[in-house]
Design goal:
By secondary structure, the protein is of the alpha/beta class. The chain is built from nine helices and five strands, in the order ααααβαβαβαβαβα.
Length: 224
């Protein structure tokens, strides 16, 4: 097993075991041997987070295991942040949050970090975000994209309420809406009037980039 492969394996294993210190140790080792933060994110952090989300779906798990795994992922993401390259001339703003009634953080945080690494300026509203808070942030931040996450079937409907609130405040045409999360589907996204659906952090990046391009073209073509 090569040095890089070993680092990836160790990070994934440590996250699944909920060992934050081991995650940090392996990330530091990877950076020391010349690995990029993006490489570590793509080949270790994202796969480990996906495995974690899959592992802790349903009812057959201990809450303490979820918390430990979450802390391990958080530690890894925080360690990678200083190595994210920023280009203020090309950055487009995205507001992201988990909808009201839902406190799931891991997947949303991974998407936020991935988007930041891809060159977007990310405003993370956190979890349990109400329609009023989403609308207020769109008014204040003027983002190109509003991204919403839901990990519970019981909270998916909040996405529709946010879109309705944007329409009520005459903001819907000013922002592209991207939705995602475990129970969310492309069909659901279309049914509530969202502009796009992302099934993973990696897909969210390419979709966000596409939405920005579409938005820029729409602005150029607008006769107003």
């Amino acid at each position: 097993m090569s040095g890089r492969t070993q680092v990836f394996h160790d990070i994934i294993s440590a996250i699944l075991k909920g060992e934050a210190n081991s995650v940090l140790k392996s990330i530091n080792l990877g950076l020391q041997i010349g690995m990029s933060a993006n490489e570590i994110l793509e080949e270790a952090m994202i796969p480990a987070t996906i495995q974690t989300l899959d592992k802790y779906q349903g009812e057959d798990f201990y809450i303490s295991d979820v918390i430990n795994a979450s802390h391990a992922i958080e530690a890894g993401l925080f360690a990678l942040k200083p190595y994210i390259k920023k280009d203020p001339n090309k950055r487009k703003k995205i507001v992201i949050g988990t909808v009201k009634g839902d406190i799931h953080e891991i997947g949303k945080r991974l998407v936020a970090l991935s988007l930041g690494y891809a060159g977007f300026e990310v405003v993370d509203l956190g979890v349990n975000v109400s329609p009023v808070e989403f609308v207020r942030s769109v008014e204040q931040e003027r983002p190109k994209i509003l991204a919403m996450s839901a990990l519970l079937t019981t909270t998916m409907g909040e996405m529709a309420r946010v879109i309705e609130a944007l329409e009520k405040h005459h903001l819907r045409n000013s922002v592209r809406v991207l939705v995602g999360g475990g129970p969310v589907t492309r069909e659901f996204a279309e049914s509530i009037g969202a502009d796009a659906y992302g099934s993973s952090a990696r897909e969210a990046i390419s979709i966000a980039q596409s939405l920005v391009i579409q938005g820029s073209k729409r602005e150029r073509d607008c006769p107003c």
